Protein: Purple acid phosphatase
Amino acid sequence: MVWFWVLVLFTANLKLGLAHIHGGEQPLAKINILQTTVALHESASISAEPVLLGLKGEDTEWITVNFVNPKPSLDDWVGVFSPAKFDPSACPPVNERKKQLPYICSAPIKYKYANESCSSYAKTGTASLRFQLINQRADFSFALFSGGLSDPILVAISNPISFTNPKAPLYPRLAQGKSWNEMTVTWTSGYDIDEAVPFVEWGRKGDLQVRSPAGTLTFKQNSMCGSPASTVGWRDPGFIHTSFLKDLWPNFVYMYRIGHLLYNGSVVWSKTYSFKSSPYPGQNSLQRVVIFGDMGKAERDGSNEYSDYQPGSLNTTDQLIRDLDNIDIVFHIGDLTYSNGYISQWDQFTAQVEPIASTVPYMIASGNHERDWPNSGSFYDTPDSGGECGVPAETMFYYPAENKAKFWYSTDYGLFHFCIADSEHDWREGSEQYGFIEQCLASVDRHRQPWLIFSAHRVLGYSSNDWYSQEGAYEEPMGRDGLQKLWQKYKVDIAFYGHVHNYERSCPIYQVRIANTERSSNLQCQTKSRDSCICYHNSYPV
Structure:
């Protein structure tokens, strides 16, 4: 008997209509930071404590910010800035003719309204806020603003605070390598290769540990395609390291920790983590796969009005962490962070998923909020990536593609063969990706791997989402025209998509007709019209 679980979670903002396109407005985009004016008040103050974070090796700390404003108002807010020091000399002119420099040219990494925890703030002018900070390779300062988000007026600046080692190696994320018995470890640090040598120390639990070297990548501001990623949203991403752990024995628990060998001979270590290696292809055992899309990130301290942007993000993350003992591999099929050009959010996302990604392979796909930007080579000319045009996603995470800029790949996990497509590049018949998809589907040995899975971010199959129904085709335009021939020819078992922020499933369909009218006690498929059908679960539409 073949045993497997496939757990499917589609999360994120549950707004309908065009929510699947935009996902709401990135909260940091609401701040008109370039228009900040300075009105430092001698009676206004803001301070943060503790000053030194991570004394016991923590990479996350709660801090308290106390502030006083002699002229308080309901729209006052506190921004968290990192690096701590504002440097107007590095800002491009707001007015080219007058060569006028803005006082602040980088958005904060998060913010809260001043009255969040004290309803009497508008009367007393005194309050405090709690923030959760993660180690992001630089110090932090806190700024008190009046004037709201659209017309910020800087009233007071706090003392800087910092983690004891801002450069520490953090937030490991695992991914399958190019073969079933290879695991990759990717992480972020502040160490360039001229400062320290990155590596992973690893081995089977209880055995002698070995060391494998890591490569180092980063990206620069001029790699961004447009604003805000190239302007107010830019923040140095640090250095991203990847090590390849090869020739793993199937089904074994491996221990690992990340190291940076400094040139004075000392080593900076991460915490110790573990993972279970993949089963041999075709192995008949319980194999538990979680597939979801469009999760985004949120703030545990309530910053950035997170409940209005990606309310399901923390719920989903926490449920995955609780269920981690029952999960073998995760696929996050596009729209990872919804950073939309605010690069600081990538650190916060990798910190959020670290308990998951450091323990099981965290495989990703490309979505519109990672890749799309006009005239950048994406299939769609929308500005959904906020000028990132795929660069952060391609650098921050490993995936076993032949070319990182072509976000399609295959991977094997036991009884499963996965073909991951890139809906943000041309997939139509005759394209390079179409050739890859056919080769991927054709290459599987169905005797060893009976489960052939296709996945992409946008719905290249069928969806009853209202935006698609307005188009009359119940699909991404041109989505299934050529692909359905391949799915039929190679007998794909299941296809998973994200993008539409709802849960739905379709009947087996080929060329807009139901291909299988069998009924079971749980599922009935009925033709709704020539172009669509409804699935019923226990007689309720789903």
